[in-house]
Amino acid sequence: MTHLTSAETAGRIEDLYGAPLADLEAHVQDQPPGMLSALLGMHEDLALAERSIDFHRDQLARLLHPERQIGRHDVSHLLDWTRRLAEAVAVREVQATSINAVLQSLARVPALTPNPSAPSPPVPAPPVAAPSPVHSR
Length: 137
Fold this sequence. Notes:
mainly alpha
């Protein structure tokens, strides 16, 4: 399954809200929590998971460098970095799946423009005075 990267996700959020990510992040600082702040949080979590994958992959590459001798004490490090890489990939998959599902469910709403050909709502009729009681003789 192909997932959006954090860069692609940022682009989708910018398209959805019509503003650069930095502006959106500044905007949510003064707002109560809502969909935008949730999307930005999910984006940050996805970006963090991607950075974690890069870091753990680099650590493994350093340990497994072809010119480097792997000793007994390196085996536990290899296993640990491999486990951490697998965890980072799992987190990224969950984050990417979640934010992708949310973004697919949202669409940018076009700005409302008055439609001159649309009839205006009818003006309510003025209230009718209640008939006064008739006195009998």
